[in-house]
Design a protein that fits this description.
mainly alpha, 0% strand
Length: 132
């Protein structure tokens, strides 16, 4: 695996850890942080995957744009369309006053992020013949 891919995944896994740590808070979990870090984890996993195969991608937080590029390489990515559409919503929407993500949003973001992370790790492991 390329060093740059490993760096994307390392940063993604930091977001994954932050998301999970905040989700375990019993009293008033920060749903802004949970949903934001879920989106960021998924974005970095997608960008890492694209980077591994030298697929150019734009500077974007829109996971659907990144997913379209990944689908050209692997058809399995089609199963993640709903997850990417959902998570893209959290890239910037709740960073400003006006509304907050709900606990249901946070739970779904965790699930969607987990599916994206799992598939990409499986695909990269198959390609690299090593355990991530």
């Amino acid at each position: 695996m390329k060093p740059i891919t490993k760096e994307w995944l390392r940063k993604a896994d930091r977001d994954f850890s932050t998301m999970n740590r905040e989700s375990r808070v019993d009293d008033n979990p920060n749903t802004d942080a949970i949903t934001y870090h879920a989106q960021q984890c998924a974005e970095k996993y997608l960008k890492g995957y694209l980077q591994e195969f030298d697929i150019l991608f734009p500077k974007t937080h829109d996971l659907s744009v990144l997913l379209e590029l990944a689908k050209k390489k692997q058809s399995e990515f089609k199963s993640l369309q709903d997850d990417c559409n959902f998570l893209t919503y959290f890239a910037v929407r709740f960073r400003y006053p006006g509304e907050d993500p709900t606990l249901d949003d946070a739970e779904q973001a965790i699930t969607s992020c987990g599916r994206i992370r799992k598939l990409i790790r499986e695909l990269l492991t198959q390609t690299d013949q090593m355990t991530l």
